[in-house]
Every structure is written in C-alpha cells, then in structure tokens.
C-alpha cells in the first residue's frame, strides 16, 4: 500500500493523537482528475427523466434538464461512462442516431425496459459538451462485433470521407468528437451479461476489437474488462487469461465493486462496514499484481493502469422490482437511498482511490443520476443524497499529487475477519501550482472523537482555507426531497492553527476535509 495507512505501529503520542508527518516533497504520483469520474447508463431514470426529459418544465430546448446540467457543471465531473453497464452488451448504437422519428423503440433485455432511443450517442456528446465532461464510451462486445465497435469509433472520431464519418455528418454533426477513452465491453466475466463468454474468447475478441479500432484511430486509450468483483469464482484468473490474449493491445484493465452493510458482508456491523474500503485497496493491489505478472510473462515494456470504472455502495435496491423494468419506459430501478454511514464509506473509498493514484488513472462513481446515485430528481427538482458530499469534496479539493505521509500512533479496532483496522483513514495531497495541501480523513470510530497532530515538513501550512466535516448522531439518517440537508457538510470546529504542529479534531462517525495554503 503506497501511502502510510498501516504504518501505525509506533506508540501513541502522549496525547493519544495520531501523528502525521506531511512532507510536501514526498509525492507518490499526480492524481488524475479522471479518478473522480461518474457513470450514466440507459437504466431506470438515469437518462430518461434524469438528464433528458423533453416534456419537463425544467428542460431546455434539447430536452436536457437544466437544473441537473447546472449542478453537474458546478461539480466539475471530469468524465462520464456511457451508455452502460449491462445495457451496452445488447445495444445497437445505430438505433440511437439519426432522425429521432425514425429511431426504433427497443426492448433492452438487460433491464427488461423499453428504450425509445430518443437519447443516443449524439445527444450524449451534446450533453457532455454542455456540462463540461468528457465521454468514456462503452462498447458492445456482447451481441456486438469488433467491426461494430470500430464503426462507432469511426462515427465518433473520423473527420469525413468514410462510411461512418459521413453518416455522422449526414446526421448534422460536422466535427468529430475525438473520444479518447473506450471500454471494451462490460463485465464479460458475469453469467448475467448478454454475450457472456470465457476469458480466452473475450481476450481474443477484445484484441481484435482493439486492433480494428486502432486502425481507425491510433490515439485511443483502451480498457479491457477485468473481473467484475472479488467474489467472482474466476476473480484474478479471468484477469490473467484475458490479459494473456490482449495485453499488447490495451492500455488498462477495469475493476468493478459494489459494497453494502448486509448480513453476509458485514453482519450488519457498521464498524466493519466503514472498513470495507480497505478491501478495495486489496482488490486494486491484487489486480495490479496480475497485470504486472502478465507484463513480465510477455516481457513487455508497457505497464497497464487501472480503470475502477464502477464503484459504489449498492445493496438495498438490488433485487425484485428494483431490478426489473417490466417493459416500461424509464422505470424506477436501483433507486438506492443513501444514509450517513454510506457517505462515510464513500469517503473512505475516495481515500482508497487517491492513495493508489500512481496506477488507478480513472474511476467512476456508479452512477450519477437517480440510479445508485448522488443526485435524485423528480418533476419539480432535485436533491443531493448523502454520498454526494464526499464525492463533491473529491471533485472540489483533491488536486495535485498524493503524498507519502508517515502516520504514527493512532488506535485500531478489530473488524470481524479483517483483523486490526485503524480508526483513522488519512490521505493527503499537495498541489505545487497553487501551494495547497489537502487532507481527507475518515474517523471510523462510532463513539469517540480522535485527534491528529500534524507535523509539517517541507512546505508548512500557512493558513487554513477549508475545514469541513460530514457527521451526525444517526448513521442511518438520509436526505430526501422534504429534508434535503439532514446530512450535509458542516464547518469543522478546529484546525485553524497552522504552526509547526497543528492539532485536528475528528468527531466520531465522520469524514472531513482540510485544506491549507502554504
Ligand atoms: O451499475 C449498475 C450495474 O452494475 C451495471 O449495469 C453493471 O455493469 C453492474 O453489474
């Protein structure tokens, strides 16, 4: 683990505080802004009623929800994965382009939902431009062929003079989109996936698609499908066998992960739940080990990076009607309502991603609107779920390079099946251009506050710019249209002195962000 999460063997300080030695010169890697991407799938009310609702009083002339666009723009979401997810593995992208009146209404077999195709590739590109986000395009490697994948690249990225680029121009889009990042299919290891196949079959198909796509545009960044989670029986074997076939043709491998406070996963123990991000540290490290093993085996000079392109808490709206669209348009699917403890864990996951920024270059909170999402809409407006806040902090404050901090002291607790886990989960960044230092801290202790003694090395923090905390008495508290700010950031009551040593106070059950100018 690159950052100092586990180096807490030194004795506790007399005050009982954890001692953090933060040296702005000890930088691990720049944190790519794409680490805080998100995801919009043709699923439930993510697209229809979420971002696109032509009949709504809140929409513009293109049918885009203005309130949603303005919030997404304000958040600065850097990149959004589209159009799926499980959906993509049965999607014919040609159904979603061209005159709207000619587009077919299609049964999406992944979610048993009717897709009117009124929103497709060109609408997504227009929406992305309006909101200032970049597209991360998913390709159908289930029912779709490698040739179909290359055709979509040609449609999106070639200027003119070829069959598919000229079709785009005929559809009224003169300029190519120049989409850089592409996912070669989705969760192809899963028996639930349309077109599910063996690792060797998928590896061949991904290599073929990559070769054809690069013939169209050699500048692409291509992400192969890794395991869809550590509970898969083929976990890591899938990754190894896929990469044996396509290592030379791809740039990155994907990981997916959803966690929940369930009897099976945590025994409904919130203490253990708040430690689950550490199992994602492990998932990242195990996946990297496989990538690097294949690299060695192939004697390749290339190192892959990871795309953690689906991650979130998801366990309540995960069965029955929450997963079955019953052949309706825009059904209410996967409408998980998040509470405080979910938000704290999402903060922990953000810490996990940041401390692996040397190899995880892209990640997507799954998803963005209405479907396991930080933002919920109805016909009259929107509200921010609890998990919106840690995600938004990452977007606003996580700039620069992740730091290799030394953390000494600090206490631990036993989490069933995980051994001793630190109460505090801390990541730090330094942004040389602005001189800002940022610290994100999860306090997993459900009943006690903890202290951090900051020891400044290299550049010292001159004054505090931001001190915010997300906390509350009730771990199960949620936001809603009626009570949108029940769980919301508050000013942190400390951290204002920035001498050689600064003491920070972390309330129980909290996630905090501190930012200083140097
Ligand atoms: O994000 C919801 C679903 O979870 C996606 O469609 C799929 O890729 C994953 O299993």
Detailed description of the structure:
The chain is α/β, with parallel strands linked by helices. The protein folds into two domains: 18-28 and 401-517, Golgi alpha-mannosidase II (Immunoglobulin-like, Sandwich); 32-397, Alpha-Beta Barrel (TIM Barrel). It is built from ten helices and 25 strands. It has an eight-stranded parallel beta barrel, surrounded by five helices. A seven-stranded antiparallel beta sheet has the order 2-15-19-20-25-22-23, covered by helices on one side. The longest helix is centred in the middle third of the chain and has 22 residues, at 277-298. It is globular and about 65 Å long. It starts with 17 loop residues before the first strand and ends with a strand. Residues 1-12 have low confidence and may be disordered. Residues 41, 84-86, 186-187, 310, 366-367 line the site of alpha-L-arabinofuranose. Alpha-L-arabinofuranose binds at residues 41, 84-86, 186-187, 310, 366-367.
CATH fold type of the largest domain: TIM Barrel
Please work out how many helical segments DSSP would assign. 10
- The count of β-strands is 25
CATH class of the largest domain: Alpha Beta
At the fourth level of CATH, the homologous superfamily of the largest domain is Glycosidases
How would you describe the shape? globular
Instruction: Report Rg.
Output: 23 Å
Number of domains: 2
Major sheet size, sense and barrel closure: 8 strands, parallel, barrel
Which class of secondary structure composition applies to the elements? alpha/beta
Beta fraction of the residues? 15-25%
Strand order of the largest sheet: 3-4-7-8-9-10-11-12
Second rung of CATH, namely the architecture of the largest domain: Alpha-Beta Barrel
- Which blocks of ≥5 consecutive residues have pLDDT under 50? 1-12
Bound molecules: alpha-L-arabinofuranose
Distance between the termini: 27 Å
Please tell me the overall pLDDT.
Answer: 95
Share in helix:
10-25%
């Amino acid at each position: 683990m690159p950052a100092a999460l586990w180096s807490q063997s030194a004795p506790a300080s007399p005050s009982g505080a954890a001692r953090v030695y933060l040296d702005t010169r000890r930088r691990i890697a720049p944190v790519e802004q794409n680490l805080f991407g998100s995801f919009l799938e043709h699923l439930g009310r993510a697209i229809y009623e979420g971002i696109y609702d032509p009949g709504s009083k809140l929409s513009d002339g293109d049918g885009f929800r203005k309130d949603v666009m303005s919030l997404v723009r304000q958040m600065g979401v850097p990149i959004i994965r589209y159009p799926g997810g499980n959906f993509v593995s049965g999607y014919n992208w040609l159904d979603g382009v061209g005159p709207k009146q000619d587009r077919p209404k299609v049964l999406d077999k992944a979610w048993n939902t009717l897709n009117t195709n009124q929103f497709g590739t060109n609408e997504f590109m227009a929406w992305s431009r309006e909101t200032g986000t970049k597209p991360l395009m998913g390709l159908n490697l289930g029912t779709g062929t490698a040739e179909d994948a290359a055709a979509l690249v040609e449609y999106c990225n070639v200027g003119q003079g070829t069959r598919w680029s000229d079709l785009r121009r005929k559809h009224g889009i003169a300029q190519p989109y120049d989409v850089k990042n592409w996912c070669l299919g989705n969760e192809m290891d899963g028996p639930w996936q349309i077109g599910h196949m063996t690792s060797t079959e998928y590896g061949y198909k991904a290599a073929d698609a990559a070769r054809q796509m690069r013939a169209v545009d050699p500048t692409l960044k291509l992400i192969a499908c890794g395991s869809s989670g550590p509970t898969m029986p083929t976990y890591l074997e899938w990754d190894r066998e896929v990469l044996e076939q396509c290592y030379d043709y791809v740039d990155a491998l994907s990981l997916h992960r959803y966690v929940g406070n369930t009897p099976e996963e945590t025994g409904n123990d919130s203490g253990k739940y708040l430690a689950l991000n550490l199992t994602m540290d492990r998932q990242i490290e195990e996946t990297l080990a496989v990538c690097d093993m294949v690299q060695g085996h192939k004697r390749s000079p290339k190192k892959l990076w990871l795309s953690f392109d689906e991650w979130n808490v998801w366990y309540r709206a995960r069965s029955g009607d929450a997963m079955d669209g019953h052949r309706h348009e825009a059904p209410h699917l996967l409408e998980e309502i998040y509470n405080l403890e979910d938000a704290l864990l999402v903060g922990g996951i953000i810490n996990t991603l940041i401390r692996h920024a040397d190899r995880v270059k892209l990640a997507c909170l799954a998803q963005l609107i209405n479907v396991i999402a930080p933002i919920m809409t109805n016909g009259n407006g929107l509200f921010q779920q609890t998990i919106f806040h840690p995600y938004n902090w990452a977007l606003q404050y996580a700039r620069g390079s992740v730091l290799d901090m030394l953390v000494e002291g600090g206490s631990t607790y036993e989490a069933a099946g995980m051994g001793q886990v630190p109460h505090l989960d801390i990541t730090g960044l330094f942004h040389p251009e602005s001189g800002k230092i940022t610290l994100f801290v999860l306090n997993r202790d459900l009943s006690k506050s903890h202290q951090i003694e900051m020891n400044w090395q290299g550049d010292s923090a001159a004054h505090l710019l931001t001190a915010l905390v997300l906390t509350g008495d009730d771990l199960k508290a949620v936001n809603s249209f009626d009570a949108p700010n029940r769980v919301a950031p508050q000013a942190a009551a400390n951290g204002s002195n920035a001498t050689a040593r600064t003491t920070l106070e972390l309330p129980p059950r909290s996630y905090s962000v501190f930012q200083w100018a140097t």
